[in-house]
Amino acid sequence: MKTSVFERMSLAAAKHGAVNLGQGFPDFGWPPEILEAAAKAVVEGSNQYAPSRGLPALRDAVAAHYGRHQGLELSADNICVTSGATEALAAAILATVEPGDEVILLTPAYDAYAPLVRRAGGEVREVALQPPGWRIERNAIEAAVGPRTKAIILNNPHNPTGRLFDADELAAVAEIAVANDLIVISDEVWEHILLDGQQFTPVASLSGMAGRTLKCGSAGKIFSLTGWKIGWLVASPELATLAARAHQFLTFASAPNLQTAVAFGLAEGDAWLQPMRERFTRARDRMAAGLDAAGYAVLPSASTYFLCVDLAASGIPLDDESFAKQAVEQAGVAVVPLSPFAEQDPSRHLIRLCFAKRDDTIDAGVAALAKARENMK
């Protein structure tokens, strides 16, 4: 397996002392209260193995959180705590995909999906979303469904494009899943990073989907603490139990003090969410305005930490990998090329930038990208 594009670009940023707008981590936004809760728990609480499915307090907090925010009727039996959302994805895939099964991916797709499907013995079927709209087209998914199709991996809100799929698009996925008896592994880690007053709909809430959806969530994304690696799976008790059996042989359990702090954050931190969204909206707007002034063609972003830039429309004749290499080496800024997010017919004229940064980081990154553009005309 190749090195992840995120690791590759972050290593390049470190090597060249570059501004890192590649890997998707914020440098602001975490509430101090949750850090204090974690510190208190590591000193006063248990530091031994947590139960494999997660601390009861956290499982209860996840269930209650989604009841308040998304109207899902859940209990601890629906929850399995994991070591980050990527491990949640791995557990969901290993629990449901058998050798010879086909799994549909909507590309560009997070680069962990395809390797995990293949490690489970499955085969990947890509359905390409087309820029600049990145819409889910029912006919394209239906054409990809065959007798061996087992699951669809849906990422909403969508990384790397920043799309928040609408009701018609989600309904298309749900109706195809029900009609063909498919599992939907729904990567919903960006569910609270909603910009411009957007509203999120979990796919499990759609007709016929509660018993066939494995929802992946992330405390790291909700609280801007990506290094904590606390995630979870939400599913029917039957599917959650299957996923927990896979999880026990992946990481078994996660740090109990961090689980305790996340439980506190989910129970007490509702007031943190809207200020967080407003800060990320301001950061997106600052980066987009700076890039526009520098002559870049910026695609819309309704969610996540990410903006995409169209190099061809910006008058830059390089492909995404060549631009990324020259930008980090010659201009001192790391970006992520979009072509590694697809294996079949990838877009080679788009890059992804992370805007979840302080103003000074954004300004330094935009200045470096302005320099890069001038160098590459």
From TrEMBL:
InterPro entries with a match to the protein in the record: Aminotransferase_I/II_large, Kynurenine-oxoglutarate_AT, PyrdxlP-dep_Trfase, PyrdxlP-dep_Trfase_major, PyrdxlP-dep_Trfase_small
**Its Gene Ontology molecular function terms?**
kynurenine-oxoglutarate transaminase activity; L-aspartate:2-oxoglutarate aminotransferase activity; pyridoxal phosphate binding
Q: Where is the signal peptide?
A: none
Q: From the record, give the transmembrane residue ranges.
A: none
Q: What is its EC number?
A: 2.6.1.1
Cofactors named for this entry: pyridoxal 5'-phosphate
Keywords from UniProt, A to Z, are: Aminotransferase, Pyridoxal phosphate, Transferase
Q: Which GO terms describe its cellular component?
A: cytoplasm
Q: Which domain of life is it from?
A: Bacteria
Q: Where's the Aminotransferase class I/classII large domain?
A: 19-368
Instruction: State the coiled-coil residue ranges.
Output: none
The family assignment reads: Belongs to the class-I pyridoxal-phosphate-dependent aminotransferase family.
Q: How does it assemble?
A: Homodimer.
Name of the featured protein = aspartate transaminase
Q: What is the lineage of its organism?
A: Bacteria, Pseudomonadati, Pseudomonadota, Alphaproteobacteria, Sphingomonadales
